Model the fold of this input.
Amino acid sequence: MFFIRKAQSEDFADIANIHFESWHDAYLGLLPEFYINNKNDLSEKTKMWQELINHPDVIIWIAYDANRKSVGFIGYFAKNNSYEITTLYVLSEYHGRGIGTKLMKTSLQAILSFNINANFYLWVLEDNSPAIHFYKKFDFVYNDEKSEEYYKDNQIVDIKMVRKINDLPS
Done:
């Protein structure tokens, strides 16, 4: 059994750890290994989340099990009526249990409960088919925008997906 709640200040270390562990697993095979190893640093992620968790425009929801172990999280950056999903990670040993779905539904419903006109968007690796398929279940669609980054002669392409429908899938 898993539970979802809004993250609190003291959750920053758990969130950083989930981000660190999941980031490597999520992008292995999608990004060059040297890129993953260079960009995925636990101390940097810990510092980042310690600062972000209390930022007024950042919304974070965390998933935990019956033993209160944190196993996943979703993060948003809010600006006016737009909410960018910046992070959604679940520890790999908990994949396939519906935790990502529960994080997505809970967070979308909470935001829509106080802002029915909210617009949602996110950036995802163009080659990350499993993630793109997941987001499509929540009515996210590719809007033809791309972002390209070059890292040591490797092109990394993210696509923008948007969701403007107010009803959540059941």
In short: The longest helix spans residues 12-27. The two ends are 19 Å apart (CA to CA). The mean pLDDT is 92. Strands lie at 2-6, 58-65, 70-79, 82-90, 119-125, 141-151, 154-163.
